[in-house]
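Lab notebook: predicted structure, single chain.

Context: the supervisor wants predicted structures on file for every construct in the current expression panel, including those that have not yet been purified. This is the next one on the list. No modifications to the sequence; it matches the entry in the shared construct table.
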Amino acid sequence: LKNPQLRMTLQMMLMNRWGKINGEAAILHALDSKNKPTKMVGVMGVFMSWTKENPEAAFDWYETHQDKLNQGGGVYGNVYNGMIYQALARHDLTRALTQDASIENSSTRKNALAGIAQGVANQPEKLKTFLKFLDNENEPSLKSSVMESVIGTMVMQDPESAKALIGTIDDSQEKAKLIEKMIRNWSYMDPEAAIEWGMKKTDDKKAQVAIITDNLGAWASQDPAAAGKWYDRQPDDIKTQDALTKVVRSLSSRQQYEEAFAWANRGSDPEKRAASKKDIYQSWLKQSPDAAKTWAEGEGKETLQGIDLTPEAILEPEETMPHPH
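Prediction complete. Output recorded below exactly as produced.
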């Protein structure tokens, strides 16, 4: 297969299937790969199925072969570490917490706790036990990081429970971080609900503007029309050029150029509006020159009215320079 993405998807599927049948043989085969990304995909495929079929056996193997998994880069070891602790916590939280307490490396332990957090986030009784365990944690930054993992996982399946958990946090700075995390993750599922909930959590206009600026771009990329209708309903004092610029750049980067122009038109400052449109057209022209020119000469003519579209104005300086003969 020439397509690398398709090749890795098929590899993941095959290793996942093998992991159900014989986890240990499958994992050893995956670890033989010399290519780091290929190895990672293979190991993840095995762990995804093996930890579901037989989490105890998978963890027993993991305990005695961590050195094999960690060879060639800590980032890969961290991914495996989090995955295995997540699976074990779902099956046997007591063992997961006991093993975590014995980890000496702070980075490895942090990753294990994050995995445990994701494993129990949507199991109320286990979550209570886990939160009590965290209460005895003496390192504030570690506890904070783990709580973000809990909220980030919980909100994807049960936003109401995530809201309730945030409500139990007394520290204002910690609560603000968790709210930010919740909005960001919830936005993937229900951006309108996430943004509106976040804005209701504060009366500070600057904070409300920040929530819109940070999250509107992703929503507009998913559903430009719905995001646009919502934005148009908002009061003028929380609409900013920064938010529009982020949306326009997000859409342009995804080659959603016509939608980007529609968002640029929402700007109230004529000069900034024109500059934004020029930037979009430049991006489109570089990516698909024929399509950009056809649109500019046809249905986009009115949108680009008043903007200098000559090569000298649109192209970068080096692109307009004559080539030496």
